[in-house]
Amino acid sequence: MKRPLRLLCQLLFVAFFLFAGTSESQEPAPLKVYIRDSLYHSLKKALPATLSPKEGNISQKRSIEWIPLSSLELYSRLKREEDRPVADIVIGVESEYIAEMKGTSFPPEIRENLYFPFQWKNETFLPLYYGYLAVFYNTQKISIPSQSLWELVSVKTDETLIFPDPRVSNI
Question: Where are the domains positioned within the chain?
Fold first, then answer.
């Protein structure tokens, strides 16, 4: 849970840096964040309501307006807003919509100074959730384990591979 929250904070800091063009005398507009409703409800208690100057590269405190939307609502709204996006940040676009979203004015290109513990080549979208896959072997049957997932699944064998869903498995 810490990795997605840390990435969310990094995205908010980048957005504040990009959209912090208000003068000191006027109240800055809230940062609008479209977020998948399921993600919003699971992270609701941890999501910040504001960011202060010490947290981001901004001159004054700025509120965050979280706008939870279903997957289809999120996609439809971004398509409808096309060249005039209302959101400053969009979080939770599902992978099946990524190709279609590249045709809209959203999102802008990602800065290169964001850190990932893995290689990421997409210049438009960032993964929010990512993880590692653990594979357990029966050492009585397999003496030399595979070095990669590709090696594991490409070997011809009569054995059955079972990959438990890490979101619900208690293995």
Answer: 2-101
